[in-house]
Amino acid sequence: MGMTDDISASVTKIIAEQAMLDAGDIKAETALEELGLDSLALIEVVFGIEEAFDITVPYNANNPGESDFKLSNVGEIVAGVKQLIAEKAQV
Prior knowledge:
By secondary structure, the protein is an all-alpha fold. The protein has three helices and no strands. The longest helix has 18 residues. It is globular, with a radius of gyration of 12 Å.
């Protein structure tokens, strides 16, 4: 259970740094648009997540709609990261 909380906290911290907000101000249902993250900041979030968890996020900045990785709100990103970590653990 602690690992899940760590993942959520880490992802939220990465997003908060890009949005220049306190992580405590960001909730799972917070949409990235509400945080004012532009496409460049979104790429930084993806890079930060990949680096923090040693995973590859299937995100194409040139065509974000074709990815299965949902980036619309914080909760979806956390769920996606957890799924990628679980898939990596099975390999």
